[in-house]
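Teaching soon. Invent one.


***
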Amino acid sequence: MMHQPFPRLLVRFRLMSAILLAFGLMIVMNGQMHAADAPKRLLIVGQGSDGHPKTTHEFMPGARVTAELLKPHSEIVTMVVDASEPWADGPKQIDGADGIVMFVTQGAQWMQIDEARHAALKQLAARGGAVVAIHWSVGAKEDKYIQGQLDLLGATRGGEQRKYQKLPVELKRVEPKHPILTGIGDFKAYDEFYYALDRAPGIVPLLTEQIDGKDEMAAWAWERPDGGRAFGFVALHYHSNWQLPEYRRLVVQGVLWSLKLPIADGGVNVDIDSKKLELDGVLPPPAGPDVEKPKKPKRRRSKGRKRKSFGFELH
């Protein structure tokens, strides 16, 4: 009886298929491990002056402070950019990022006013990216931008419900065990706070302050339905508030959590050289009601000069 070679060939084929499959799985797993180990690419966007008084709405300096505070974290690579209009490179830069931190004017409008930018931000969210917004990056003057930002950030403001007040408050923790609040207790601050925000279902208020007898949300975290995370903080109107360690820790840990990175027990170290917080070589004055008051020019009287009044010489 003649030997049939087909069974042997079939065995060899199955063996080679199994080897190739195992090799392919090893390549995929190795690629995934390298991807997991690769540092997160964080885009920090700021803008130039929007007309507010000096030491307020200092968005580019705020972006640089954030990058400085994140330097000890080797798992993050930061890129600080000026996103003043027109920001032609924006969509490409967003496409290359794992997360974005915004220090911009009318953030809800800024996110949507350019179709390509809005599309890139939605794609960032869809791939599980981080979305972080600070102060005027939350909301817009017109309510037509509410829903677009709500879908990505979890809370916003616009139109008739765009409310804000400058006042001293005590910021109280709502969820003390949330990772973002690690090492942060209740604390006092003077700032401009936005309130009566629109909210998406499922957001977690982190800090509240009392305004007109009501607890209002100042900071929040949100695990979006797309699997990504978002963090918002409505304060930091005054650049001087970067001098508060609670503010620095809140922003840094909000970024880390949004990027799905671990937060150290007891909270991250947010010590910083005070020179990094200066504006034009000077630390800005503490936040308060007098900071934005226009300064009256000093009147100088020339020495040895006679003033005349009604034709009479005055000495």
User: Anything to note?
Assistant: Helices lie at 6-37, 59-70, 90-95, 107-112, 115-126, 146-153, 245-258.
